[in-house]
Amino acid sequence: MLLKKSLFVCAAALSVFASASAFAKGKKLQVTSFNDLKWQDVPGTPLKTVNLWGDQYKGAHGRYLKLPGGFEAGMHSHTAPYHGVLISGTWLHWEDGQTPVELPAGSYVMQPGKSDHNDKCKEGADCVLLTVSDAKTDYIPGKTAKK
Fold first, then answer.
1. What residue numbers bound the domain in which 137 lies?
2. What average pLDDT score do residues 14-32 get?
3. What's the rounded Cα separation, in Å, for the pair 64 and 49?
4. Strand, helix or coil at 21?
5. CB 60 within 8 A of CB 54
6. CB proximity list for 129: less than 8 A, separation 6 or greater
């Protein structure tokens, strides 16, 4: 069972990084320890982010996104699809009308663009996600978003 889980996590991560290779432009080795990341606030939210490549506010990118334990985004969508791998914490993710799915570290999500969904980080530890998209990030409140 552990071998199957490990293979699945590796396959999910490889699919994320395979799509990300199209964004790689550097020819020089870049190595950054997770402990040395420079987290930045996401304006108007309790979220924090780190650009790994590209620019999340301008186009194709890979980034870490940190959600505090207990945070819920509310129903929303994004213009473009994204791929996400949970690095740490417990993430709940679901589309409008569906039951939340509780995801442990190593889980993978491909969220289609223009599809209302919700994200929640389970109370306790923060959630850190690796997200990859071929377009800039945006947040479009959903039709069923809490007012």
1. 2-25+38-141
2. 64
3. 6
4. helix
5. yes
6. 64, 65, 66, 67, 84, 85, 86, 87, 91
With tokens 């679901």, the residue in question is: 94
Q: Is residue 146, in this structure, part of any structural domain at all?
A: no
Q: Confirm whether 30 is domain-assigned.
A: no
- Mean pLDDT across the chain, nearest whole number? 87
Task: Answer yes or no: is 33 within a domain.
Answer: no
CA 20 to CA 61: how far, in whole Å?
8
Q: Is 78 a domain residue?
A: yes
In sequence order, what are the beta bridge partners of 129? 65, 86
Q: What is the reported pLDDT for 24?
A: 56
Kindly tell me if the per-residue pLDDT of 2 is higher than 60: no
**Quick one: pLDDT at residue 26?**
73
Give the pLDDT mean for 89-96. 98
pTM confidence score:
0.79
Our count of domains for the chain comes to: 1
How far apart (Å, rounded) are the C-alpha atoms in residues 46 and 48? Answer: 7
CATH label of the domain that carries residue 80:
2.60.120.10
